[in-house]
Amino acid sequence: MNLKRVQKLLILVAVLFVSLEADENILVYKIENKNHTISAQTVANGLEKNGYAVAKNQDMNAPYQKQFGNTLFESYNLMSVYHPDFAKKLVSNHDKSGMFVPFSIAVYQYKNDANLHLALLSGVGQEKILGFKEKLFEQLETLNKTTLQKILPNIQQESLSDATTDTKNKLYTTYTLDVDDEDADENYNQMMMVMEGNMEMGGFVVANYLNFNQKLQENDINDYIFYHSYSLCKLKIIYELSKKTPQAGAFAPCTMVIYHKKGSNKTNIVSLNINSLISMLSLKDVDLLKMLDDTQADMTTIINDSIE
Description:
- This protein has helices at about 5-25, 40-50, 60-70, 85-95, 125-130, 135-150, 185-200, 210-220, 235-245, 275-280, 285-305; strands at about 25-30, 55-60, 75-80, 105-110, 115-120, 155-160, 170-180, 205-210, 225-235, 255-260, 265-270.
- It is an alpha+beta fold and about 300 residues long.
- A hairpin with a 4-residue loop joins β10 and β11 (about 265-270).
- The termini are far apart.
- It has eleven helices and eleven strands.
């Protein structure tokens, strides 16, 4: 084999490796939708028929157009979704797993594009963020793939061209507060009064709220005094991200969970870090990276001010 053929082969292997590494964390699909007969609502309805709960199906394109006067998309929706059976098992096994209850699915179509696209995190991607292996994530990924294929039989998986970037930074942040069980509810209410006010002032929107403890109790799981899930969004951030890498919607809105386990005398706050987006989307745009770093700093300040 001559040198040029060896070089071409090495380049091909490198491209395949990069693509596989990216696809390992984020699943991206496309389906022909020239006549716009398929919408995000089509996907939401199909998920609900197959046992999923769609907590929110948020049109982002109209706010893009209204606030920024421009959009690249014919449609761009962010869905907050969970499967009740898997969600209760995941949270029962690992408190922090609620960071993906609900998880996000981005459904979007560019202007003048014949294809509708979907993006969501893989089981491997969720495991990497949380830092542990859990077969339930892999089983849920299999179910997600099977269900999407059932809803949209002609759907095809796309390949991402960018590899993930290694980072030593933690991909989520945990805050643990010493709070007696009998004071947990009162302390939570006081904390959230401050936090919600600070989030509003900082431009953060609670896109969806889920009292997941109610869902657990409906299934005779009574481990928690409370377990709250907040889906948080900052319109400017997702707008800028979606222009450069629309599959970023797989992370948005970001979920923050606040829970207090019975007998622990501790309230925990777990939130997704901006580093997870930077790492898995291999972001390199300097201005966007600064915006994301500033957003992470703002969110950290908001939480710290709320728990002091």
